[in-house]
Every structure is written in structure tokens, then in C-alpha cells.
């Protein structure tokens, strides 16, 4: 999404866990605002990064993200899982950096 001085833009990705995430929706202006509001209403985490959105907006609907974006998108997905309290089955909190007492 862009800052408030420019027209808002949003790109939605879907990740099924097997293949690379794909672009499922894209919008500008009022449509972007509605996409963001709808995502938030459904508990979907929204990441706001103008540069990443510029790259993603170049993709066609249904297209998988390019390999060059795998790491950044994987980090965002992993972080969103942690925020939701989801961890891999074999994950161990070896550094005790995450407090499970929420």
C-alpha cells in the first residue's frame, strides 16, 4: 500500500503451502482500501510496503511470485504465523525469545 498522499494500491497473495504464493487480487484507490479493510475484518494480516507492492503489482493475476521475492515473502509468511501463535511441529524455542504465556 502507498502512503496517504498518493492513491492507495494493494496486492493480495495466496499461499497454499506447496507452490510459490500467487497474486489473487490487485486494486487501486477505493478498491485497494476496500481490499485492506476486508482482509483486516477477516483477520488477515496486512503488510504495508510500497516498494514490495510495486514489484508485486507488475505480476498478472494468478501468477506466482518470482524467485527473487521468495525470501522476503517467506519471512513475511513466517512472521505472520508467529504473530498468530503458529509454529512448525518440530520447532523448539531454543533461545527462549518467544513468550508463550499470552
SSE layout and pairings?
Layout: E1 9-14, E2 22-28, H1 30-41, H2 50-56, H3 70-83
Antiparallel strand pairs: 1-2
GO biological process, one term: protein secretion
Function: Required for formation of the rod structure in the basal body of the flagellar apparatus. Together with FliI and FliH, may constitute the export apparatus of flagellin.
InterPro entries: T3SS_substrate_exporter, T3SS_substrate_exporter_C
Q: Could you explain the architecture of this structure?
A:
It is a single chain. The protein has 102 residues and is of the alpha+beta class. The protein has a single domain (9-83), classed as secretion proteins EscU (name from scop, 3-Layer(aba) Sandwich), CATH 3.40.1690. It is 32% helix and 13% strand. It has three helices and two strands. The protein has helices at 30-41, 50-56, 70-83, and strands at residues 9-14, 22-28. A two-stranded antiparallel ribbon has the order 1-2. Strand 1 and strand 2 form a beta hairpin. The relative contact order is 0.16. The model has no long low-confidence stretch (mean pLDDT 84). It holds the Pfam family Bac_export_2. This is Flagellar biosynthetic protein FlhB.
